[in-house]
Amino acid sequence: MSSSNNSGKVLKLKSKDNQIFEVEESVAIQSELIKNVVEAGCDIGVIPLLTVHSKTLRNVIEWCQKHVDYVEENDSGSNEEEIKNWESEICEEGNNNGSDDEETKNWESEENNNGSDEEEAKNWESEGNNDGSNKEEVENWEWEENNDGSDEEELENWESKFVDVDKDSLYALLLAADYLSIDSLLERVIKQVADVIKQCRSVEEVRQTFGIKSDFTPEEEEEIREEISWID
Amino acid sequence: MRMDSLPDAIVQYILSHLNNARDVAACNCVSKRWKESLPYLRSLYFPRNSFDSHSGSDNPDTIVWKMLSTIVCLEELVVYSPFTSAGLALWLLLVHSSLKHLELRMDNITEYQACLDSPSKLDCISAAKNLESLKLWGVLMVNPPKWDVFKNLRSLEIVGARLEDPAFSAALRACPNLTNLVLLGCEGVRSVSIELPYLEHCKLDFYGLGNCSLSLTCPKIEHLEVQGCSWIRVRETTCLRNLSIANNAGRVYMVDFGKLSALEFLSMRGVQWCWDAISKMLEWSSEVKHLYMKVEFTGDLETLLPFPEVDFVEFFNSHPKLQKFDIHGAMFAALCQKNSLKNVEPGFVIPCLEEVVVQVRSPLNAEQKMSTLESLLKYGKNLKTMVIRILQMKSSHSSTDDFFDEICRLRFMNRKIVRIE
């Protein structure tokens, strides 16, 4: 949803469970993997992301979007103009029923139609058309824009909330960030995982939390335990 | 979470975020893969209570040594738990080539043990030749430490120390490339001369009678804070932007700075400063943007005296760039003398002043004080905030109430600007 750079080209990303996501190029190339695909000229049609589930991909796209927005907000430039462009883009997207329908049709013809997929497509469509929440977002963004001093803090808080999820989701994000090569996300998730480790109070708790089986022999285990007895 | 299916590099990266020795030790025991990832740690930290409940066979020095021996390229070591100089020597033998940052709780101010056979902890630090930063807590430096030159040392911080002048000078000679020097809560210093060609940031806090003398020859100095000196000479001040001089225990009687052409912030605090020192500082700081004054009295000898009169117009004309002014202590009374406002000419303005904090201590000269406050509002065309702090005035006197009423009226008339605390 940026306006200041590129032709506003939109890429199509396909999740592991065959959901298509339309994402602006500037947002998608936060992923080095996708960036390489684009630069190699292979971005015609749909880019398949075979290991990323739609649930995770949606979150990843949100992360990328936020970071593109953040960079733009902090660009000195005619912000007012940007806001206007952005507003009109959102409204356009929301009202662009024509291309949504077309998109859904294309997708339908590509894959076999089963009930749940259609449902998801409908949800996705309604998201795009949801003018109400878009306007809210614009308002929030405008307010944020004026809050110069704490912009970085605001981003940090947003990031912390973003990674405050259950372990399975965190793990999925970690794998996705690694596969897609999104440095900012990878770093933040890794820091979160490290924080989870720090909160564990014993070796057992660490193993349990991360589903790790000890691969030491009983003798080795005893030896190591003796060495770290001071931590208790 | 299926950690086991993550690539090694990611596991290493995750574990590299841990630096508390307890966490690291626990992770060593989780699995072989985790154990193999830990050698890549960059930083290790032992909190104060690391070994408090320890009753095993190894002593703390050895436990630390064992952990250090598994790490390939340690850059930062922080040890707050107790240790011996022998232990420290062995640790540094392991990590000296890669170690950049060292922080130690020496805790030996009260130990007057004569370590004749083993080198002192301070001496041992010399082995870490590539240090870039060193921070020590609770240091006893009465003998010159046996230090070779720390070529890469940029930052030296000592918190809580008993120093002797020659020992401290010797230590500084071993750190010729310092850019940051911090000495907090230091006792025993009488006279200090600091000559460091790259020093930019210096914070000194001397305990005692407040009668230390300081001579600083550091051409790149940008930020200087000094507490506890009565005699201060800083020769080269072309880069000095931030200056804070305080003396809680003694009297400031001699300052020698020369023109402070780059100075943006000046803070003067203390119970008593000689008037010569005050007036010189005010004279030299003509470019200053933020002035904080909290000197309670003046006087060259034991007697505590109020400030002489300070001409309002002259003061603001000689500090035309002043944006923020904190007037505590005796300064406000000095600006409120009978003749302070006699030189007001048409066209007089206080151009840049945006924020004023005034501390009012007594209702004496209430009329003049109100007049000065009003003048600040009148001539301060850009004034955005005025905070009036009223401090414990004895309310048995009726004039106090009148004065307070006057101040409230002033606030009422200038609601947007004036605030009372």
Automatic annotation (TrEMBL), chain A:
Signal peptide residues are none
**Residues of the SKP1 component dimerisation domain:** 184-231
Encoding gene (name):
LOC110425138
This protein is called SKP1-like protein 1B
- Keyword Oxidoreductase belongs to the record: no
Alphabetized, the UniProt keywords read:
Ubl conjugation pathway
Bias-annotated ranges (Acidic residues)? 139-153
SMART domains xref list: Skp1
Q: Where are the transmembrane segments?
A: none
InterPro entries associated with the record: SKP1 (IPR016897), SKP1-like (IPR001232), SKP1-like_dim_sf (IPR036296), SKP1/BTB/POZ_sf (IPR011333), Skp1_comp_dimer (IPR016072), Skp1_comp_POZ (IPR016073)
- The answer, when asked if Nucleotide-binding is one of the entry's keywords, is no
Q: Which GO terms describe its biological process?
A: jasmonic acid mediated signaling pathway; protein ubiquitination; ubiquitin-dependent protein catabolic process
The organism encoding this protein is: Herrania umbratica
Family stated for the protein in its record: Belongs to the SKP1 family.
UniProtKB/TrEMBL annotation, chain B:
Every copy of the F-box domain together lies at 3-36
**Name of the protein this chain belongs to:** F-box protein At1g10780 isoform X1
Q: Which organism is it from?
A: Herrania umbratica
Origin organism lineage: Eukaryota, Viridiplantae, Streptophyta, Embryophyta, Tracheophyta
